[in-house]
Amino acid sequence: MKELELDLENYRNLLNQYITTQDETSLYQAEQFSKLSMQHNISPEEIIHVHIQALRELYPDLPKEVDNSMEFLLEAMISYGLAYQEFQSLREKQLELKSEISVAASMQQTLLSTDKPEIEGLEIGAISVPANQMNGDYYHFVTDYQGTLGIAIADVIGKGIPAALAMSMIRYSMDSFPENQRFPSEILQNLNRVVERNVDPSMFITMFYGLYNPLTSSFKYSSAGHEPGFFYDAKKDEYREIRAKGLVLGVMNDVTYEQFEIKINEQDMVILLTDGVTECRVGDRFIERDEVLDVIKQYAHLPAQEAVELVFKHFERLQDFHLRDDFTLIIIRKNV
Amino acid sequence: MNINLEVEVVEKESTAIVLLAGEIDAYTAPKLKEALLPFAEQKGILIEVNLEKVNYLDSTGLGVFISALKATKESGSELKLVHVQDRVKRLFEITGLDSIITIDTTVRGGK
């Protein structure tokens, strides 16, 4: 209350100064006064209260009607005071939520983190950058005792936090599948059931799953509606789309996925991506898939990790460093 | 970006024709959902969505069509997409949704 009394004196002087001179500076100071009051959580009706006090001190003979009208105004302002209080508490809550989300985001990062495995004769580059705090894209590498490498790349449709949570679910269901069910078609079939049962109807997940066996150089894969990647055939020096049609996860209960197989030769590459790469747009213009491939080709001769990072930087620059969608790109090259 | 989606609905007996013009993305998808779902939840309705004037559809938009499709399956109605542009059609093909949603791609007056 002491502070308010001090302010009362200040307010009275300001008011007096304005009434007598009507100069701009006292108006400006009034604005400063209101800003300061807000910082100190002083409500609108308290300011009116101060105004009434000051007025009574400056004009002891104030007409009774004016004095009464001020009391009336005071009552009329009470709801605004309450609204202001609510605004304050919402602002505090918002700050709380914000910090909770950033805790969740870092937890997600830990939960979903995957180590790039070291596999002899194979070079792997991977990058995944979220457009917002939490990532709806996901990739995961699994190696087993026989030395095979499983690669999952997925995109949750429906953005933000629910999408990110769905991703953690996918990750943990994958871990729970038995070792002998590591074939891409089986994994997608199982995951589809999990997603269909547990996820909101407007949300769905696209996923590509590949399984590489270094002993036979075979790459088996299936896709659940995922943006097609590319296969680089070094002998022919040509890029082909990896075609593998299949329904996205979570739409229908009983879906089977076709499994395909290719042989990977020396210097061949498998390039996997999410639609954050191909849905990229510059102003009103969409980037065509051919252009995406052109950019990838431009950097493909570099070490795989360097290449994916440079491709990302290229598109980040194109979009003025403001990603519209999560961006994930993986390049796998057979070196020997 | 200030691009909108216009939604126009024409009801004829047990058919609802939904004419869309513009872009379907995270911003406009709720509007589409609001228009489609009430019909999808009704019994015995054919919902024909005309996408001739839709040049962009993102994954959020696909999500709306999926929820509508699921709702029609439950209510015994039918969802059909007509006059779908190539760019948009590609998305339905990649996601395999063209195998479970009826899509008619002939563009009126086009090739």
UniProtKB/TrEMBL annotation, chain A:
Keywords noted in UniProt: Hydrolase
Database matches in SUPFAM superfamilies: KaiA/RbsU domain, PP2C-like
PPM-type phosphatase domain span: 123-334
Alphabetical list of InterPro entries matching this protein: Bact_Sigma-Reg, KaiA/RbsU_helical_domain_sf, PPM-type-like_dom_sf, PPM-type_phosphatase-like_dom, PSer_Pase_RsbU_N
Database matches in Pfam families: RsbU_N, SpoIIE
Gene3D superfamilies per record: KaiA/RbsU domain, PPM-type phosphatase domain
Signal peptide: none
Full protein name: PP2C family protein-serine/threonine phosphatase
Organism this protein belongs to: Aquibacillus rhizosphaerae
TrEMBL record, chain B:
InterPro entries reported for this sequence: Anti-sigma_ant, STAS_dom, STAS_dom_sf
Pfam family, one: STAS
Upper lineage: Bacteria, Bacillati, Bacillota, Bacilli, Bacillales
CDD domains (alphabetical): STAS_anti-anti-sigma_factors
Presence of the UniProt keyword Phosphoprotein in the record: yes
The protein's role, per its UniProt record: Positive regulator of sigma-B activity. Non-phosphorylated RsbV binds to RsbW, preventing its association with sigma-B. When phosphorylated, releases RsbW, which is then free to complex with and inactivate sigma-B.
Protein name, per record: Anti-sigma factor antagonist
Organism listed in the record: Aquibacillus rhizosphaerae
Keyword flag Cell cycle: no
Residue ranges of domain STAS in the record: 5-111
Top-rank taxon: Bacteria
Keywords for the protein's UniProt record, in alphabetical order: Phosphoprotein
UniProt record similarity statement: Belongs to the anti-sigma-factor antagonist family.
